[in-house]
Specification:
3 domains, 11% strand, rod-shaped
Length: 427
């Protein structure tokens, strides 16, 4: 609205209007509108120039200085466009400080335009803060121990707080209200807001507990069957933890569920330097027997157990003589069994295997309780190889050999009857 009353007009504007009136035969009102239009065009041109100077000259010079510097954090600020977002303030400041001079006779429009500039500055401020936070995250993640203590969830909370504060300021500007009164009025909607941000609040709490207790890190291998996850953690955010499964699918797990549900973290295995092999060979109990002289002589020729056989025979002979056992009866005294000798062979074979830990980690070959599926000989050892594909190759090679040598000890593997077995029986 045009306001010419009580107008304290600078001499420059007054002279410019008088010049328009005298040279173009305009009325006073017409001169005001023409002057205002000319000044608006001038402000627009100045804004474009300010934008060009900041982006094409200042930012270009700043970029060259940053790229030549030895520090890395300024490169990250440049990459995350912190300086580029800051440059957007230049045209806004030109408009803010010159619009009052250009539209002196239109105070209503001045307040409206300034309010729009305030909103624009708030939006640009959000962009600047967000890009700066992204830069902080990138700088932090470049540290060696960043994976142990990820801060992405905390920075997301900070972004939410900044967005909330900026939104309150924008609303207060648009409706010409005191920000304090708007904050006070939000109390009515607290319940609705808590329901709306329930997952974020739970995620924040879960993220703090996960980080403080060091339960999950980036690149950890975790297994969570209830969520269909079994793979590597690739991202930890405020609300979710992303896991890339071994089949290359992505499982998204709510952060708080890692605190309320069971999951397995394989980090301990990876840090230990070994990976467990726990598998059994089922022996047909009907093939278990005492060793006769012929079988014993055969065992003496097996390199890995020949020393054991010699010492064991001497031990058994001394014991039986000491107790005067009648060894013509098999149940009297001590004897070598094929199952016991096979167990010793497995131990010696694994002790001499270059990819198996035999010192400092559990090393066990034992018999489990017999069942309808035979007598399980369980191998419980740790491989030096941890990578999945290579580990499976090591494990397979070991059991390829052990399964192949079972008949050498006159033992049989247990296997449920197949169609071929029934066919032979019928024939």
């Amino acid at each position: 609205m045009l306001d010419l009353q009580h107008l304290n007009e600078p001499l420059l504007l007054s002279n410019f209007k008088n010049w328009l009136i005298e040279n173009f035969d305009l009325s006073h009102i017409q001169a005001v509108y023409v002057k205002t239009f000319i000044f608006i065009i001038a402000i627009a041109i100045l804004s474009i120039i300010a934008n060009y100077v900041t982006k094409k000259i200042i930012l270009t010079v700043l970029q060259r200085i940053i790229l030549k510097s030895k520090t890395k954090w300024d490169d990250v600020l440049l990459e995350k466009k912190v300086f580029n977002n800051l440059s957007h303030f230049a045209p806004a400041l030109v408009i803010f400080y010159s619009i009052g001079f250009a539209m002196l006779e239109f105070p209503g429009w001045i307040e409206l335009i300034k309010s729009g500039v305030y909103v624009y500055i708030a939006v640009i401020g959000i962009a600047v803060f967000f890009s700066f936070i992204n830069a902080v995250e990138a700088i932090y993640n470049s540290r060696p121990n960043a994976k142990n203590r990820p801060i992405k969830a905390y920075l997301q909370v900070l972004k939410v707080l900044i967005a909330v504060v900026a939104t309150i300021l924008i609303v207060s500007i648009l409706f010409n209200k005191n920000p304090a009164s708007i904050i006070a009025g939000l109390g009515v909607f607290v319940t609705a807001l808590m329901f709306l941000f329930k997952d974020s609040l739970l995620g924040l709490i879960g993220g703090i507990q996960l980080t403080s207790n060091d339960m999950v890190r980036l690149d950890d291998w975790i297994s969570m069957p209830s969520r269909g996850a079994d793979g590597t953690v690739i991202d930890i955010t405020l609300n979710t933890v992303k896991v890339q499964n071994w089949d290359k699918t992505i499982s998204t797990i709510p952060t708080y569920s890692l605190m309320t549900e069971s999951f397995k973290n394989w980090r301990g295995m990876e840090e230990s330097g070994g990976r467990r092999i726990c598998r059994s060979i089922n022996i047909d109990v009907k093939s278990i027997k005492f060793c006769d002289d012929k079988l014993v002589e055969k065992f003496k020729k097996i390199h890995l157990i020949k020393d054991y056989i010699e010492s064991r025979l001497n031990e058994i002979e001394a014991h039986n003589k000491e107790n005067n056992y009648d060894t013509s009866v098999l149940v009297n005294g001590r004897r070598i069994t094929n199952i016991g000798t096979f167990r010793i062979y497995i131990e010696e074979y694994l002790k001499n295997h270059e990819q198996i830990h035999n010192d400092g980690m559990t090393f066990l070959v034992r018999q489990l309780e017999p069942s309808e599926k035979g007598l399980p000989l369980q191998i419980y050892v740790f491989s030096k190889i941890q990578a999945w594909v290579d580990f499976e190759a090591v494990q397979s090679n070991i059991f390829d050999h052990l399964l192949a040598v079972v008949p050498e000890f006159e033992l049989r593997l247990f296997q449920n009857p197949t169609g071929e077995d029934f066919q032979k029986l019928m024939n």
